[in-house]
Amino acid sequence: MTVLAIVGATGAVGSTMIDIIDARETVPWSEIRLVASARSAGKVLRVRGEDVTVRLLEPEVFDGVDIALFDVPDAVSAEWAPVAAARGAVAVDNSGAFRMDSEVPLVVPEVNADEAANRPKGIIANPNCTTLSMMAAMGALHREFGLTALVVASYQAASGAGQPGIDRLQAELSAVSGQDVGRRAGDVAEAISAAGLPAESPFPAPLALNVVPWAGSLKDDGWSSEELKVRNESRKILGIPDLKVSATCVRVPVITTHALAVHATFAGEVSVDAAHKVLGAQPTIVLRDDPAAGQWPTPADAVGGDPTVVGRVRQALDFPNTLELFVCGDNLRKGAALNTYEIAETVAATL
Ligand code: 2RA
């Protein structure tokens, strides 16, 4: 009798979590409890063919729960994951609240599943979706070739900003659709404003017909929080505390699936063939790498699926021991709900 709770069940990631659970042939749960704030408590959602009423987030809701998944903002996780843990649940948290806590493992099952067992606070963290999108590939390549440095540029989808991000991009796309815009500075913003969209947006600039070199909040020396997460979380997950990492995070007008251009340096020279063998043998990766046949990863190929799609693998011409590659991962699935759920499955197998 293993009881699973999903906190934040009605959000963009929570809904994806329910889709993932519905698609599993079997699940180890005797009960799936849906939990949300007062705004959503009382709603009825279908889970594996049954109506489940969403319960209010309060301490008692965790009684009898074995594993509690949190898909909520940082502040909510910071307050409530310890409450769930204190009531006996293993909390698996998809927020940023605990990722860099030295007493909280940061887990990607195909890279460092063993670490899920070492959880002194009863909390396991799920990485940020941008870091996660490249971890299956980087973990596999690091195991074989020894990673020493990563230089990354992200192309992040609007749904990284949750349902408000999706809604905003769709509204902006409607506002510019059929308009003769994109020829003069400011004309996209004018079209968006003329369509009556509020100036306030999850994005700091128009996203339709644009790319925005910003995700997250401002940190020291001009870095964004998102860029620092890529650096810190990659080091922690891969277990390389001194890994050299530099990231530039960019938002693009894609609804779902983050893409990353990765410049990965290893301890020695790595041929494309050797990299293909390693990537092709990783069950959670689909290799799509035949430029002559027009085969490369795009968000449109990866969205809605579980695997990370990897391609454009090249030996860097002017950088010894370095491979260039392009990876695409659904940020709501492997980047969030799927990895969180896989952690829960990993823990459930040990209970
Ligand atoms: C984003 N990675 O894409 C963030 C969400 N966790 O905005």
Quick description:
It catalyses: L-aspartate 4-semialdehyde + phosphate + NADP(+) = 4-phospho-L-aspartate + NADPH + H(+). By secondary structure, the chain is α/β, with parallel strands linked by helices.
Structural account:
- This protein is 32% helix and 22% strand.
- By secondary structure, the protein is of the alpha/beta class.
- Strands 5-2-1-6-7-8 form a 6-stranded parallel beta sheet, sandwiched between helices.
- Strand 6, helix 2 and strand 7 form a beta-alpha-beta unit.
- The model has no long low-confidence stretch (mean pLDDT 96).
- Bound molecules: 3-amino-D-alanine.
- It catalyses: L-aspartate 4-semialdehyde + phosphate + NADP(+) = 4-phospho-L-aspartate + NADPH + H(+).
Count of helical stretches: 10
What is the strand content? 15-25%
Mean pLDDT metric: 96
Q: Level of helix content?
A: 25-40%
CATH H-level superfamily title of the largest domain: Dihydrodipicolinate Reductase, domain 2
Question: What is the name of the CATH topology of the largest domain?
Answer: Dihydrodipicolinate Reductase, domain 2
Bound molecules: 3-amino-D-alanine
Distance between the termini: 10 Å
What is the strand tally? Answer: 14
Query: What count of domains describes the coordinates?
Result: 3
Structural class: alpha/beta
Low-pLDDT runs of 5+ residues are none
Order of helices and strands: EHEEEEEHEHEHEHHHEEHEHEEH
- Could you describe the largest sheet, including whether it forms a barrel? 6 strands, parallel
Under the CATH scheme, which class of the largest domain? Alpha Beta
